[in-house]
Amino acid sequence: MARQVSRRKKAKKNIPSAVAHIHSNFNNTIITIADLAGDTICWSSAGAIGFKGAKKSTPYAAQLVAQAVSKTAKENGVKTLTIRIKGFGPGKDAALRQFQASEFEIAEIKNVTPIPHNGVRKPKKYRRR
User: CA nearest 57: which of 34, 33, 87?
Assistant: First the structure.
């Protein structure tokens, strides 16, 4: 006899404001939405949606990722977003446009890409024997 597995419904949270972290590099786009305390509400990436290889880094893939994440965030009651963009990838603008189109009230857009000040230390000079 097959056992029936009872699954509990995931409790929906009611979070009015959240932070969307868009991490876009040349290989993938990852979007995480967290509440103001830093606890993750939902996340997705181009690879998780089903894109493989070079298609993960396209703006279209980033648009679909933002669409999926915004749908889940709306189910959890998110109304206002603060957006933090990190990286140099091609998907960051498409994801940002999708968040603006999905009727969130956007409080702030901030670029938090780390920029090296002086780079790494140079190798020592070669000494010939």
Answer: 87
Residue 82, phi then psi, degrees to nearest 5: -110, 125
Indicate if the pLDDT at residue 111 is higher than 90: yes
User: What is the bridge-based pairing of β-strands 17-24 and 29-35?
Assistant: antiparallel
Contact (CB, 8 A) for 59 and 46: no
Phi-psi region of 77 (alpha: psi -120 to 50; beta: other; left: phi over 0): left
CA distance 91 to 104: 19
44 close to 69: Cβ distance less than 8 angstroms = yes
* Alpha carbons 61 and 54: distance in angstroms, whole number: 10
Q: Where are the alpha helices (DSSP H) in the chain?
A: 46-49, 59-75, 92-101
Instruction: Read off the pLDDT of residues 38-74 as tens digits, 9 standing for 90 and up.
Output: 999 999 999 999 999 999 999 999 999 999 999 999 9
CA 40 – CA 46 distance, rounded (Å)? 18
User: Which tokens is 75 given?
Assistant: 């189910």
